[in-house]
């Protein structure tokens, strides 16, 4: 591709408006995530009577919390009112309409169409583009409020991009489920890790550590999110960071030394076993039996 053409495309992607199409894709995936999370965890009802039919208020509130999780948590961390994301009536009405269609459309049509692979890929591409937008603006806002606090900037950018995972425990609590052992701190998802990497990249750009035009950096982050999301949906590669994490832990987190220690403990044990006098008795008994 011609560099100028690539630059033009990157500039267009940078200036994309998220409402309504990208936001709707985000709302669809979040409402589906809440719906799919209910039945196996709740253990109640059946496909003919899902959780949303029995507890519509809880289902709606849970979906709204997940849809606006990034903004809610970021506002909490920055000392702003956590209810601020709900002041945008248009976004709330749009998210509510999506929630209603996902859970109550005739013949479950919207839910089934959203699960259809070609349509799901389109929705995921729109969603990942919006994720890059959220991460960038989270870094931008945090950098203006705390220009010298790089950790805060990275945390806010990460939370803006992957707030639904952080909110999951509280979201489940609204639906009467409490699973404290399953959270983003203990088991971070790929979305959280990728948002962390993107936040660091955008921070390095602000610090002029990356000498590349902003549209190219932004478009590169979008491609990064989209590529690995498509790999997850089509190929089942859910976390490409795992091999790097295993290597890092083996070198810097004591994994290599633990392996050497286990090997050193096993070798003397084998030598002691060979020197055990009981082995000589057993061998002599076996020789007598042969005779």
From TrEMBL:
It comes from the Eukaryota. Its main location: membrane. The chain crosses the membrane at residues 57-78, 90-111, 135-159, 216-235. It is a multi-pass membrane protein. One of its GO terms (molecular function) is identical protein binding. It is found in: Endomembrane system. Belongs to the TMEM38 family. This is Trimeric intracellular cation channel type 1B.1.
């Amino acid at each position: 591709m011609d560099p100028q053409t690539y630059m033009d495309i990157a500039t267009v992607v940078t200036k994309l408006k998220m409402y309504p199409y990208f936001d709707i894709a985000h709302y669809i995936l979040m409402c589906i995530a809440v719906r799919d999370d209910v039945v196996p965890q709740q253990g109640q009802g059946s496909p003919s009577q899902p959780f949303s039919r029995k507890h519509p208020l809880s289902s709606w509130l849970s979906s709204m919390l997940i849809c606006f999780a990034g903004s809610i948590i970021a506002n909490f961390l920055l000392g702003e009112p956590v209810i601020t994301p709900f002041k945008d009536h248009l976004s709330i009405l749009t998210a509510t309409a999506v929630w209603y269609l996902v859970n109550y459309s005739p013949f479950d049509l919207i839910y089934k169409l959203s699960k259809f692979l070609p349509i799901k890929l389109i929705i995921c591409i729109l969603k990942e583009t919006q994720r890059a937008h959220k991460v960038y603006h989270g870094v931008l806002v945090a950098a203006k409020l705390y220009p010298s606090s790089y950790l805060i900037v990275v945390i806010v950018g990460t939370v803006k991009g992957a707030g639904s995972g952080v909110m999951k425990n509280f979201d489940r609590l609204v639906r009467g489920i409490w699973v404290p052992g399953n959270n983003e701190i203990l088991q971070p998802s790929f979305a959280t890790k990728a948002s962390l990497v993107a936040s660091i990249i955008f921070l390095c750009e602000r610090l002029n550590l990356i000498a590349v035009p902003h549209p190219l950096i932004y478009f590169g982050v979008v491609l990064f999110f989209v590529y690995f999301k498509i790999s997850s949906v089509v190929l089942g590669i859910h976390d490409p960071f795992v091999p790097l994490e295993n290597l890092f832990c083996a070198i810097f987190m004591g994994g290599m030394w633990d392996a050497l220690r286990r090997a050193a403990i096993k070798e003397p044990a084998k030598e002691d076993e060979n020197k055990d006098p009981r082995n000589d008795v057993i061998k002599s008994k076996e020789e007598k039996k042969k005779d």
